Amino acid sequence: MNFMILDMVLLVLFASFIFLFLYKNRKKLNKEGWLLLYHTKWGLKLIEKTGKKYTKTLKVLSHFSIWIGYGLMAMMIYLFGRIVWLYVFHGDLVRAIKIPPIMPLIPYLPQIFKLDFLPPFYFSYWILILAIIAITHEFFHGIFASLAKVKTKTTGFGFFPVFFPIFLAAFVNLDENAMQKRSNFKQRAVLSAGTFANILTAILGVILMWGFFSVAYAPDGIVFDDYAYNILSFDQIESLGGIPLNLIGNYDGINQSITKNILTKDGKNYNSIKAIDVENRLMALYYDAPAINQELNGAITKINEETIDSLEKLSSEIEKYSPQETIVLTLYDGEDYHDADLILGTNPVTNESWIGISFHDRSSSSVLAKISSVSNLYKDANVFYIPKCPAAEFIYDFLWWLVLISFSVALVNMLPMGIFDGGRFFYLTILKITKSEKIAVRSFRFLTNFFLALLGLIMIFWVISFF
So what CATH class is 294-357? Predict the structure, then answer.
């Protein structure tokens, strides 16, 4: 909480600084739509020097940049179609995500919309990542333009002052007349260079995440997903809470939380009901096992003072003991460590000792679970990790957001619409294929209007999902 307050103070100070900066330099600002553009000469020498010094390397990278651009464009079109499908046919998921489909990236976005499957997003993350992505994106535009003998007139920053003055983006102002005289290939290389930079940033971020995680975190326990359970048909069940199953008429009305002491026709007892599928006449029943009987929760960090740092270690430690032996579990509940005495049970399948816990198969997880798992890129899903330094989580989450946003910006920027680099990139591609400017212009306008219509459609279904 203390950091959150400090971060918000930083936000206020930064906004105040930008306001004063814009006011002081108001005569140097150019208005373009809703944006205020501040032109400078910063970085021009570095752009020209880099473009001339690494000519051979940049020529090779031009081919990579263009083909990566096509790959990103195809991926973004597919993802856009998937987003439309989700908003039109999966209102439940839309309600769970809550965020409007047209939503600028703002500080504290996960906190505002209570998106627990995402790490927190602070203002300090936002401004640093925005600067890294925008500056590298535009710098690559500049050096590839230099390679194509297109002059960068100015560099600068854009501001969006509608609500309060904030740094929005960097830009390079190219000589458009010279740009249009260059070959189709060179123009596409310049246009795709920014997204190429974003992809390189994302790759670097992944590498940094791996390196940082390996030195800043240590495994310190196992987190189980559920208590052990079994799925049985109605025909296998004798009674629920002492009431014969054939006397229960309304299965939908069964209160799962209070239905205990379940008996099957082969004489086995179960603890309680996990779920009921009336249509298929199936029940998921919790075993009468030690974990559920003692209502264990939290990460299992030790068994009889032996550290547990993997699923294999958990299994091997339990195998050392026989059923009905008492062990001492050390658990971490999110705030503190505590010990619990537990009498081991007998696994009904293998007859070996067991605690009675289960772990989910995440191969077919929900969309939200998959999004959440991205933040645990290097973490075993069921291993509980502890940071070795106080700032470890803050830095790791920053790197994760850097990767996510860099890749997202690369994708969105290659959408074949007029306002993105992908729009002109698409136009040049059609022009190259057809040799007809008329066809290229019509194709460009059609796709721009088509995607704008789809954006309107998903906005409508976003509103409908809440009714």
Answer: mainly beta
